[in-house]
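The freezer alarm interrupted the setup, so I double-checked each line after restarting. Inputs confirmed:
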Amino acid sequence: MHANPGRLFLALKVAVLYYIGMAGHFALGNSNSLATIDVAGAFIVISSPLCTTELLVNALLNFIQTITSLS
Amino acid sequence: MTLSCLIFFAVIYSIIQEICLREKQLSNGILPWHLDEVFSLAVIFILVISMGSSSMVEEEQYIWHFLISTLNMLLLRKTVQFFQKGSACDSFTLLNGHGRICLRASSIFTLLICGRILRGWHQGGVNWTYLPDISKWLEQSESDLQLIQLASVFLTIIFSLLSLSLLGRRTKIVLVVGFNFLMSGLLVLHHIVKSEHNASLPSNNAATSLAQMIYATLGVTTVGTVLAVPWIMPIQLSETCSSYHNSSISHPSKIGSESQYPELRDSLYIIGCVYVGSWCLLQLLLQQPINSAVMLLILMQILASFLFFSQGMLQRKQWVEVNFIFRNQFYLLCIVSKFLCICGYLNAC
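Predicted 3D structure, all chains:
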């Protein structure tokens, strides 16, 4: 092993984290197709009738559920 | 995609260049390149080249699965090589390093096993969706998904609290953060149980307010930790250090040798743990019940990689620090891009 693993493995650590994130994103059932976007989770806090604030919350939750699932 | 890969490559290359410069300054020697490090860089090129084909874009999940599996196998090979080198050394070194090698090997096996299960959970993409997978099998067998969901949340809470306890300091702020996190986890558990009972109702005010409470708790815990810990941690650490010096003067170099900036490292460690744990709990709330086990497996992978790369307290903290900084920068980019999209959408309306 290397004499200074903490510094030398830094790039490898970032790379491994990125790869785990990408693999995890696809493992959740997502793909590059728009058809696989799951919007059900974004409607958890939505009550009818829908107002502008809730629309923004909905957009934020949808964003968290799909795009930021890239761990 | 190409742009993001190029940016990522530039970041990795700049880190490696900086490391090379530091190493040259220290030893004036040539830096040896390991196979796993070369491969982690080559992955970016492989990905960029593969994106030239539309079929590859449709089936990107297979590329990531094979690349991450290859990288894990390379890390396993490296661990075995280290074990062989260690057996050639004296018995004292071997005894000291034996536990570490076992930990590394078990972490890599965890990564490989979790990766394989994740690969079989969903048949994503376009061309192979009809093939059987674990999620379809679970849905067809009508097994109790709520039990899987509850077990996933419960294990997520335990793993997150364990990673927080690895800090080794039982200060008040750590206890407060741990308690807040435990409360958030219990609220998520309560929401899952409640939503199962009220599944027949189209909209339930109690469930909605409970979900809002969870968002508020998670948000306050995460933002509060980010804002408060860097200010409170140095005070508590200085108190601990002074009491330590008063009680035992025989080991004065122990605390100083741990890190140059212990308060900063401890703060980043706590923030990183809370950030990862809150993200997992939020995803467990938002994702479909069938995906709850997937979230747990991803968390296990992150923790296994964290254990693999940790060789001591200093490196372990650095790993979480890297995790936290990388995630923050990535999410910031995502948020900015999404915000621009929303602005564009509103302008178009």
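Quick read of the result. Residues 1-5 of chain A have pLDDT under 50 and may be disordered.
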